[in-house]
Amino acid sequence: MIAAIILVLAGLYCLARGVMDLRAKRWVWGVLGIVAGIAIMAAPIPTQVQVELPAAQGR
């Protein structure tokens, strides 16, 4: 769970930094920041989910 929060914060930072760079007319850094932010936010977060099914009863 903490990894997901860290990744979201990093993605938001990259997006914000990219927008700031675009406003300052640093086109390459701005585009790279936005692309990095989108890539971080779109990355799947692996989780471990364990589902236990009841044992089958013989008839």
TrEMBL record:
* Domain of life (superkingdom): Bacteria
Q: Which UniProt keywords apply?
A: Membrane, Transmembrane, Transmembrane helix
TM annotation in the entry? 26-45
| Annotated protein name in UniProt | Uncharacterized membrane protein HdeD (DUF308 family)
Q: Which organism is it from?
A: Sphingobium scionense
